[in-house]
Amino acid sequence: WGWGSQGHMIVAQVAENNLTPKAKQAVAQLLKGQTLAEVANWADSIKADAEWVHTKPWHFVDIPDGHDYSTAEHSHEGDIITAITEMIAVIKKTRATAVEKENALKFIVHFVGDIHQPLHVGRPEDRGGNSTRVKFEGKSTNLHAVWDSAFIKKSPLTYEEYADSLEQKFFVLAPYDLPEISFSKIIQECMGARTDIYNFGADNILSNAYYKKNLAMMNAQLLMGGKRLAEILNKVYQ
Q1: Of 116, 134, 138, 183, which is most buried by a Cβ count within 10 Å?
Q2: What does pTM read for this prediction?
Q3: What is the mean pLDDT of the chain?
Q4: Which residue, among 119, 114, 117, 111, has the nearest Cα to 86 in the 3D structure?
Q5: Could you tell me which of 160, 140, 161, 165 has the C-alpha nearest to residue 215?
């Protein structure tokens, strides 16, 4: 899975804060008044339903070291790259129903968050860190879970406060021309983070130094995800 629920809501709140008035109005109308943060975890909540179980592979993409998206083997059931592309096409499609567009928007909010969680563009051999056992703050867990939520949970801030604090600390400009999103750049960023993410020694204990070293990178990914999500929606609804 990508970010935990708090992480997805942070990404969505950053996006909400950066929507143009026209995009904000369109989003509110489509979501019947709900905010992006309120629907940010919908795509995770439905994965076990028979109607939506086919969307599980859409939440990630596995790319081995030394490869890129074009050379890696992909699931015939789809992945996060194809899913984002297809969902953007749905909300831009004139003949799509309101329900189809609403669901597509909720998928986009979630998947753009997912693709910015570095282990969501993961190594296939350990399932994006899910099979790599580690200890963090004395608790046995897996590497993916640490990056999903354990780091974020150390903060006492609400998701709104966290989003605001990110925008005060960083400045990110990430323009994209639709429908050609620069997935290659996002993938490159995630794969480039692997050296630090997997640098925790043979004992598999994630120290406080590891946390401090990687916190800024995680925060930058959360902020970048929100900024890019806003850019996508602003372009769709311009």
Answers
A1: 116
A2: 0.94
A3: 93
A4: 111
A5: 165
